[in-house]
Design goal:
Layout lengths: L1 E4 L6 E2 L4 H11 L5 E5 L12 E5 L3 E5 L1 E2 L5 H25 L5 E6 L2 E6 L9 H10 L5 E2 L2
Helix pairs in contact: 1-2
Length: 143
């Protein structure tokens, strides 16, 4: 597994520590080609929504999030519930050759997986709402 780590943008943090993520990824998805920690800001991303990660069958990217949007509860739930979920889903996707990316967001009190639209770009607030209406199940609650 290749790892790529960049320092988070000023005022931002990651939802999980690198060492903890590596341990979980090595145990749950050892064949994952890339685990990355990155800062990403694209025009469609809503600045008030924590975009926590994106993944496909070929990678997991943990995204830096503004520190004021990252509560202790959100970090704990991400590390204990969400990151293992992502690792398991990435493994399933690699077995089924499904490579369309998903994005993990904290939205309306729930950590959710939403679909990337329009050429694999990060979904806007409206696209997140549309994805939730189509697939209302969340991964876990967050405070």
């Amino acid at each position: 597994m290749k790892t790529a780590v960049t320092a988070p943008a000023k005022g931002e943090i990651y939802a999980i520590e690198r060492k903890a993520a590596l341990g979980v990824a090595r145990s749950l998805c050892p064949d994952l080609p890339l685990l990355a920690f990155q800062t990403m800001h694209v025009p469609k991303m809503d600045s008030e929504i924590p975009y926590l990660a994106t993944y496909s069958s070929n990678y997991i990217r943990i995204l830096s999030v503004r520190a004021d949007l990252m509560s202790g509860d959100l970090q704990t739930r991400f590390a204990e519930q969400v990151f293992p979920y992502i690792c398991n889903e990435a493994t399933v996707r690699s077995r089924t050759s499904y490579s369309w990316p998903a994005v993990i967001v904290a939205f309306q009190g729930m950590i959710r997986e939403v679909t990337c639209f329009d050429g694999c770009l990060f979904p806007s607030r409206e696209e997140i709402i549309r994805s939730i209406k189509k697939y209302p199940r969340g991964i876990c609650l967050c405070q």
